[in-house]
Amino acid sequence: MINHTMLVSFADPIADEDLDRYISDIGEAMTDTGVVRTFQAQRHIPIAGEDAIPAFIATVVLQLGVNDEADLAALFAAPRAGEVIHKWQALHPYEVAWVNHEAMA
Known about the structure:
This protein has helices at about 15-30, 70-75, 80-90; strands at about 1-10, 40-45, 60-65, 95-100. The protein is an alpha+beta fold.
């Protein structure tokens, strides 16, 4: 199993309802490919003072699991992904960092 783990950082605070919709939209776009075996999302748990740290702090972490590299390539070619990305970038600009990796023990 290969995991595609995304750290998504919105430029400005985002309402819980909007974040839920973003998670749902991106999850649906990816699972519609038929190759996603697992999908998980968790919100960042903030701590006092972290705003002062010069680091990439994610708003949410998303993890999609696929069987192999061919499925991972299919995930990156998801037909609806571009549409979802452009929609949400227009509504709430964000940055993404990701890593593709084997499952962690």
